[in-house]
Protein 1
Amino acid sequence: KAYYWSQDSKKISFLRFDDSKVPMFTLCNADGIHGEIEVQHYPKPGDPNPDVKLGVVNIKSAKVTWIDNTINKGDYIAWPMFTPGSEALLYQKMNRHQDTLQVMFVDLENSTPKEIYRETQKTWVEFLDDLTLLENEEGFLIRSEVEGWHHIYRYDLNGNLKNKVTNGEWSVKDIAMVDEETKIIYFHATKEKSTEKHLYKVRFSGKELEKLTEGEGTHNCVVIPNGQYFFDRFSSCNNPPKLVLYNLFDENKKIIADSKTQIMNDYKFGKVEMFTIPTEDGYNLPAKWFLPSDFDESKKYPIIFSVYGGPGTELVSNSFPRRGLGNFYLAQNGIIVMEIDNRGAGHFGKKGKDEMHRKLGTWEIDDLVSAVKWLKKKSFIDTLKIAISGGSYGGYTASMALARAGEYFKYGIAKYSVTDWRLYDNFYSERFMDTPEENPDGYEYASVMNHAQNYNGGMLITHGTMDDNVHMQNTIQLIDVLENLDKDFELMIYPNQRHGIRYPKYPHSMKLDVKFWFANLLGK
């Protein structure tokens, strides 16, 4: 979103983009007789960024006041936010190198911005998407990872730190609600376990921290503005979501809805277990697997790793699957499905993520190899049928595992994958890799194509032709190399699909996956 209304509805802050120096990328729609061309400005790593100006327009007079610009700097501006009286504006700036973040304050009467917060990290910083302005005491709250774990800090509008609200080797996931009258902050966090999420409350001072949700699992809550009630949508590995209403005043609760229907009792769902897998250098990687309902340790089972792998994105949680029952279906047919997070997923704070800096494609695969080595010691794993699957960044992880670690992974499905970070957008890629000029060796090593000679299994590759996020160019360049190396693979193209395969083609995609797994892992 690039425009924001003031609370008094008299002003709009907005961002003006000049994309004229940003390179173009062309997408081809093959419909009709002559087809259609779709062209977009898409800056890839090292490319020029748009010139951006932040302005405020007065609705009545139509006068525009320019606040800040990034002309010839390539910096980023985001999240303009009016103060409660609509007389001043806060916004965030980040340098192109993405290691320094500023929060700027500007009184709209003099329009000279001043810095009220600065954060610098040795690897990368991220925008403060939970910055919360306080009306009664003229200050703000932020959720930052500056000291290694996401925690809440309280500042005044002059940039002075009043106090650190939360602390410890755990992460605040988001600020759910702030009650200024009682000076209480409601937030979600992983204080108990990194694979669980609960709702907590704490005073502005940092005192009287209290967990509000009950039961092991993942809780996603909505707090009513007066703080008397909250809704809790929660689930765990073996229990589908329930919606519960809590009354904080009398501690009563009421189940509003339960997604577990009677028909589920007619099916033999596989058992889901959570555990950790150790690495040689001291990490205990969170993992969970879906086992067949008639699991027998004396038998041999193929196994599929379901992965994502991107920095700061956790896949493994004590929660019921959000996207259907596919993993249970595969388990029902005799295939173990396992989810695992690498050291950079977020369970280990910024320390784990920082290890991925300038080295994408390294720890994602090395940690997976540690997991395979651990699995090979289990008598019930068919070590000749270890597979991997993922989409987007998960597609990158899957294809990179098949290429870099072909002796460990035999089969895989890679969907709408990044295959070379020089082909993806610069904001995301440069955050973790810097520019290709600054990190040429890192980009070379991170390219799937540069490891393709080690691929020696079976892979299904899928992509949508109109993917404007991860361009199909990534897949085209990968299959070009695989063909030149005389490697076997399967390819399915989905016309006019963007990023991800959606209806009406989604059922075809899901059935294709199942056929691939059944043929290669079950021989049927």
Protein 2
Amino acid sequence: MSRSKKNRHKRSGGKHGEKLTTKQLQKQILHLFRTNPERRFTPKQIIQHLQLKNNKDAVRYAIEQLHTNGKLKSVSAFKLDEPSRKGDRNQRKRDDKKAVKSNKPDYKSPSGKTNDSAADTGEGEIVGVVDLSRSGSGYIVVDGREQDVFVPQRRLSGAMNGDTVRIRFWTPRGRNKPEGEVVEVVNRKVEHFLGTYRHGKKYGVVIPDRIEYNFDVAVMPDDADEAKDGDKVVVKVTDWPERAGRNPRGIITQVLGATGSTDIEMKGILINQGFELKHSEAALEESEAIPEEISPQEAHRRLDLREVLTFTIDPYDAKDFDDAISYRQLENGRLEIGVHIADVSHYVRPGSALDKESAKSTTSVYLVDRVLPMLPEKLSNGVCSLRPNEDKCTFSAIFEFDDRDIIRRTYFAKTLTHSDRRFTYEQAQELIEQSEDSKPLVQKLDLSGEEVDWTALMKHLNQLAQKLRTRRFRNGAIDFDSEEVRFRLDEQGNPLEAYVKARQDSNMLIEDFMLLANRSVATFIANKGKKNEIPFPYRVHDEPDPEKMANLATFAAKFGVELNLSSPSAIAKSYNRLQKLSRERPELAVLSPLAIRTMAKAEYTTDNIGHYGLAFENYTHFTSPIRRYADVLVHRILEKNLGRSEYRLEKAHLEETCNHISERERAAVKAERESTSYFQVLYIKEHIGEEFDGKVNGVIDRGIFVQLSDNYCE
């Protein structure tokens, strides 16, 4: 069965005996209860009845989600039943009347009176995430629930965009969409706010910069950190009001000074996306206590690859080197390529202050003029970074290629490596493009004493990478190459030039070997857990939304471009053809960003549905643990599953962690885009009144978006 057919089969529910995703499980389980209304089931009975390959933990998690969403009710320990809407509604009436008599109504209709009636779409309590609209009202997004729950501003109880809340919901008479009210803020997405301090006689207030934060934060004199009236400050809310309309209280954690600087704007972007600007004292103390030298005992327990030719290729301004490549010819005639990754998990231990802080932020954030690192600088730029001419602890994926460039052996190991040279992408590209009659770059290695021809090596690696890339696209991968705007800054941090980052062979060389390592790690875990699943943070990408694809096809047809939507593989080919046409014909450039918007967003999850865009059955993130917490988790799980041992985390908890990492990743992307937009405005404001060529790259009801050709400002 082809991959596209298999995925389509899998997503439709498949036959009994298959391992289903959580959403597929929920659908099958709900159907089971509805076709057996008088029966009660335990997870074990569900597995037997549906002939599932999923384990009890997976089934338990699926039914708990159905229970949370109000679609099943618990009868006794892990025995569930589908709710009887009539019985529950009558009980709700009794509870409402009792609450009214006690003058403590716990359930209100939109009018503020007790609700004696609810439509068949259900009522109850659920937990979800607030998505605020421009009007100030909110929609509560609940995983696995098709309809969002509308909550007007007056019933948000102070909840803000991105907060996790518990709501009471119902469907008003005569309507088919649910409404609700917030009864508890379970978790605040943002606790720190950037704003302006205003001094008062008894206490001061911080007025948040962002318009959606329609409250002031009261600050007592002892908590003002000597802030002066008009200072830009960071305030942490310590006491949220229980009733709407009252202001929260907080303490000022940083006084930034006068307003209007780029530095303050960048810090504001980070704070408003929920990132903290400084590492905690506990995390810094832990990092400072980590020795820079590798002990003899630690070196002895690792596979020693220090004399194997190893090097890095990174941007010219990089400081944290996550990955290195090694290259050597084996005695059996095969070529060994090693992908060596900084062993962050060796230094960041579960439960430590470093681990807790990393698990909260989950990612480094790369703004135009700065990086907010996930780890303290001693680790990110020092102990863990694979700097040249230093011994480092690494976690390696090693591949043996035969004379036809086919991988014949793959293995993983904790290693000790030594980078012989650091290349920038530009330097590596020069070697790849070097002509035959030019003098090659030759170096004598310090440790092995051998001479290496870097020019020949880089050319050979590039050929290997191209073959890996060709196979990937032949299997249905999609070309997501998009323009990434960069800036050249002066000494004061002002933009002098805007340009698009060049994506050359040297960039793709590293990318292809990192993809190979990521895919191989995920495949190893998936194969080991075939009979008994090993919960794992997969990086997945679902197929495009059919409705969005149909709309795109209709729009593209007006430009004379026909898209084939007959199968997932046909869609992938259509995407690639569209990308190629967009580069060749400027008038079609508007189609490329529209096509990307139809795609599902990649995310982290324990439900392995594959990566559609890369055409991989199994994929994860293994290669960037300095800047991604997901990779740290992958390292820990992989290490404990090497050899014959098997190690499993509790799936439901790991899934929650994956959801949090995905959410933080989206916040980081938003911060990076806001940073780019800010610097584009800084740049273009110096050119007001000038004329530029541009192209239309977006259309809305109120007008069009034009991207300027010379500087990529929109």
Protein 3
Amino acid sequence: MSFNERAIQFAMKRLAFLLIAVSLLLNARTAIAEDMVPRQWRVFELAFTANQEHASPMELNLTANFAGPGGVQFEVPGFWDGGNTWRVRFAPPVSGEWHYRTAAVDSGDPGLDAQAGTFTAQPASGENPLFAHGGFLRVSQNSLYLTYTDGTPFFWMGDTWWFCPSKHCPIVGSYEGPGESMFKTLVDTRKAQGYTVAQMAFSGLGNDMPALFSPQRWRELEILQWRRIDDYFVYANEQSIVPFIGIGFHKSLDEPSLDDLKRLWRYVVARYGAFAVGWLIAGEYNKDDKQARVEKLMLLGQFIKDIDPYKRAMSIHPWVYKKDKRQAWDQPWHDFIMLQCGHKDWAFKGGPPPTSLYLDIYHRRPRKPLLEDECDYEGIKDIDAQRVRLVAYRAVQSGSFGFTYGAHGIWYPIHSYDERKFTHFGKAVPWWVALAHPGGAQMGHMRRVYESVDWWKLEPRPGAVTAAGNLTERESKQVLAKAFEDRLFLIYIPSDIEPDSELTLQGTSNRLRYNMTWFNPR
């Protein structure tokens, strides 16, 4: 047996979360290098070769300083990519001439330290909004929504793929379902439907999670796996999808030390920070109220913010609303509030989340943008498309700057009708069946109706629409309005409202006249 055969066998045992055939271990930097002409907002990669071998490559900190037009400067971390190769990835935020110089002083390696050069970044081009406007999302000036890097409003329409990237959601290799790639099929479908975000958490690693959280012990085989992960983010960005990534959920984060988590995240920021991605750090960080875990992740959040050259908007995915202690909300690194209202009967006795919950957060000070990022996944506990539409529109009409959808069978990918994982949430169907659920497509309609107007100017207007006989007092019957001054109203009428109900728009001058356009959420 050759060394490579033994190495692959070891990799399959050690890191089963990304099983890849030898013939498919293609280096994803090929995809990055296809257009290596430096261009604004696009990943530009520099490679450096060490003059000597380093026994602990993950302990070697390489950085590069980039100085560009107008005196802008970025300090960008580099990463080990196997053997004697280190790389630095940078996405120039402006076009023009750039100068760079590396620093790896403690390495004693002239192949890595004090390497310098110059390049010219071409202007942004193409219709992909991530490459036209910049995919490092920012908080708007009024702290109510997110924008692309250049300030263009960004409507968050997300899907949930917590077990991606992993063997559960392969980009290549064996799986059940249509298409040549499961991951690409998900991305292509959601792009066509109008989605802009995919929430991922590297879940599903099981016994391999300790290896992921111990980067000081990584060797060549782990690097092969990271090269394959590159392909996920390259493809998502090419299809204008922003992956918002965390690593691990609740109890899996108890064992690794803060130093190990910092090493891991330094590598993640170095390897993927130049892509149009976002950081949600971890999932359900405050489940079970483990104080040590919470404190560790609060420090980790600040570390990630400090080393991110682009200072993109970041958050953290919380435990279900009534058990969320909100520990992150006032952290200086915490840019927007993710809210998990749970699934059907978890928190609100079967009814939808009350609009007062969203409105209270919307009006709190200091103000931070609000996002409903987990509520009523389609297929969990028999949740149907009507329920999905109800909670989604209620959230956005009450202050959420977008919505994250989820489908049972995709948030954890089911690959056959016989699979029994997570059946306590309800009957799960294979992922390609879940991908065709009507609610998933209807979320694209929601984005389109908001983007048909200047949605970022609209503010919740509670009580703007009334009905005779207090018809709308029940949560599921509330008619909800958002408005820009008195010039534009976007009114959501739920399907529970009787068709012959008489509704009155309150608080406007009777001298005004309005044109009305109906939109079918289905």
